[in-house]
Amino acid sequence: MGSWRRVAFALILVLCFSSKSLLSMAAIKAAYWPSSTDSYQPPLSIDTTYFTHLYYAFIEMDPLTFKLRVSPNESVLLSEFTAAIKLRDPRVKTLVSIGGGGSNSTAFALMASSKPSRQIFIESTIEVARTFGFHGLDLDWEFPANPDEMASLAKLFIEWRGAIETEAYSSRRPRLLLTAAVYFSPHFFLSDTPRSYPSKAIKYHLDWVNAMCFDYRGAWDTSETGAHAALYDPKSNVSTSYGIDAWLGSGLPQSMLVMGLPLYGHTWKLKDPNVHGIGAPAVGVGPGGDTGVLTYTQVVQFSCTNNATVVYDRTTVSTYLYAGHSWVGYDDARSTIGKIRFAITRHIGGYFFWAVSYDQDWDISRQGA
């Protein structure tokens, strides 16, 4: 009997270890790679150790033909990206992301409004993904502007998934992944035009969504400093915790929700350098040009050059620094770990970074390990 108990106990330990390993393997650890020259980083320089999925960002849609634009230069970049990631680690999946924050939202709305134009777009996306060796497709439409456009988005997801499955069956190749970058909340409760994402269509036709849990504060409001990716906000619903819980409340399975983490900060110019907490009076943007944005690498450099004071804020689970009149709100390793722990408590699918090339010596990217 004693021997049996020892065997049973050993088996339980093995099962527990295996479960934890499977959870670790299943977690999505993703990042977007910007192809633009202002933040270019050679794909071969990406340390793929810290990621399970990497997104090429971005490819544009032609507003007249509804096909993806692939210039000769873009063709080279797409090929280099997939080849480099495959060489570094063939286990890492690559996806091509369509759109982005600077894309033409009106063109997306027009494309999604009719079945013929949706079909042209869908066929073009599958062709590009297969031609350049991607494992999946991602839509970053920022943002459908009204309930009608959200209804069109639902139709697009349904038809897109159907086309992807048909193509996989006919080509005898693994099905392409289909994901989307979405607002931090399923409901646009801050907008003059309230609308919500089609959660049912997302649930049944996408593999997961990347919730953009950042840019809550920025240059559009220079009256006071703020945590632009606050995990918690005791004064409002503009926070990551609210957005994640709202997405889960909309009926989206936990495994289909991926939390966004920023690798950049927003800056302000303090009104009084002696008053420097979150919510301190400000009179404009700080370092980082007209937009008041610094990559994490630039934040680290600014901190060192200016001997800045760095503060971790437990209330919002964020970090900020100040030096003279300059104030920067961002995430460092400590606040990133806090947010990843939150993701674990909610049992969601994982996290993604915007953007992989903004990190400093992989200081933030490695925290998920």
Give a description of the structure.
The structure is a single chain. With 369 residues, the chain is α/β, with parallel strands linked by helices. It is 36% helix and 21% strand. It is built from nine helices and 14 strands. The strands form two sheets. The protein has an eight-stranded parallel barrel with strand order 1-2-3-4-5-6-7-14, surrounded by six helices. The two termini are 40 Å apart. Keywords: Glycoprotein, Glycosidase, Hydrolase, Signal. One of its GO terms (cellular component) is extracellular region. Residues 1-26 form the signal peptide. Residues 27-369 form the GH18 domain.
Fill in the keyword field for this structure.
alpha/beta, 9 helices, glycoprotein, 6-stranded antiparallel β-sheet, disordered N terminus, single chain, Glycosyl_Hydrlase_18, TIM Barrel, 8-stranded parallel barrel, glycosidase, chitin binding, 369 residues
Distance between the termini: 40 Å
Strand proportion, as a percent range, falls in 15-25%
Q: At the fourth CATH level, what is the homologous superfamily?
A: Glycosidases
Biggest sheet: strand arrangement: 1-2-3-4-5-6-7-14
Look at the helices and sheets and give the structural class: alpha/beta
CATH architecture: Alpha-Beta Barrel
How many domain regions?
A: 1
The major beta sheet can be summarized as:
8 strands, parallel, barrel
The H-and-E topology, N to C, reads as HEEHEHHEHEHEHEEEEHEEEHE
> What is the overall shape?
globular
Q: Could you please say which CATH topology applies here?
A: TIM Barrel
Number of helices: 9
Rounded Rg: 22 Å
Residues in helices, as a percent range: 25-40%
Mean of residue pLDDT values: 93
The tally of strands reads 14
- Low-pLDDT parts are 1-25
CATH class: Alpha Beta
GO biological process, one term: carbohydrate metabolic process
Protein name: GH18 domain-containing protein
GO cellular component, one term: extracellular region
Signal peptide: 1-26
